[in-house]
Records
---
Amino acid sequence: MLIGRKLCFLGCGNMGEALVSGLVLSGSAKPADIICTDVREERLEELRGRYGVRTSTQNVDAVAQSEIIIYAVKPQLMAEVLKETADQLDLSKLVISIAAGVPLRAIEALLHKELRLIRVMPNIAASVKESATALSAGKHAKKEDIELAMAIFNSVGKAVFLRENYLMDAITGLSGSGPAYIFIIVDALADAGVKMGLSRKDAQYLAAQTVLGAAKMLMETGEHPGQLKDRVTSPGGTAIAGIHTLEKGGLRTTLINAVEAATHRSKELGEMMIKYFADANNS
């Protein structure tokens, strides 16, 4: 689907490189069809050496040559880069933003153009090709545009499409911020293992593998987590004793509250970005 399409990545930090790597190593896109931009020439040299892609320090030229534009710059730089490249954007191009906390409404408030817009929320696990990614589309995006965006982000994990743009804040609170919650859980499990006499290395390895294995069971069986939990908890056994302690400590409530708090913060930041982009349009 992406073979022969000209792609441009504006900004090639960790997430940008993860996407380039996923596309090139999976064979989803040819290196010659990908152009990456960055302000750091040494960074571009690294990308050329690793993936054989084309590079440039000129955003405008890169956008002019491309059919699919992925804005992978930091959120605070998004307005500046959008304004810089605005003259090259029209309905002939698919415009994808992975700038965290920047709603489609903010981009529309800045550019005042009809564009085929897609907003994407990947997470840090894209760096190991296991991102949980959600996409939402602007009103001018076509079915093929959504399929193209899904193909790009399925190269670094698994992607879902949301018809409701407003749910992107919930995605930010759940899967966008979620790896941080899991890192804390793994760290806590490892601490517990150390307290019980395991070495730090073994405790951390086993904790991480336990999370990985449990997640894989959920994904591959399609069973409800409660059903799988019941398989582990035998009457009067060790697992149910541990679960009793987790429930007593309010683990479920704490995790729900964490996702809720992160979602509310995402909404706040989004409204700030809409105002900031509107102000930038007038400056």
---
Amino acid sequence: MKDDSIRHFLKSFNILRDSEIDTFIRLLSNKILKKYEYFIQEGQTCNQVAFVLSGSLRSYYTSDKGEEITYCITFPNSLMTAYSSFLTAHPTQENIQAITKTELLIIQKSKFETLSHQNSNWTYFLKTIAEQQYIELEKRIFQLQKSDAKKRYAELVKNQPEFIQKIPLQYLASYLGITQRHLSRIRKDFTF
């Protein structure tokens, strides 16, 4: 059941009471993104947070040379937003696009802010999420700078084996910071 996934995710933080989670779930709306459809595009302002129920998304920006650089892949049971835009209410510089058909649960920023103003547990929850995002970003930077591509790929296979085959090579190579040819050579060493 859809509610079970988000409920389990929220309970895992040991911050929110069941009644608070119930209130949150009532504020959610469902959204389906078709393959290659956008959650948000560069120049838009993000005013919602999504919980990924199924499918996967990629976050990317376009370089000065016109290349799409995938810097984040979001898998099920994760929260996702154009975070800088969500916080600042300024237009985003990123694009968030469905890699596969993706089912989301959406909450509007205004509703999230109302929860936060009414209950300090939500403020603490948001702080915890922000801290986790920072840690993930730092981990990703260290991984790109300290690990070779084979180790980065192995880590992705270990953590997301069921999704790795569904990600187009060009996105996966960009995410790993390598060429598609290099990725093809690395993949030959792995069995699924």
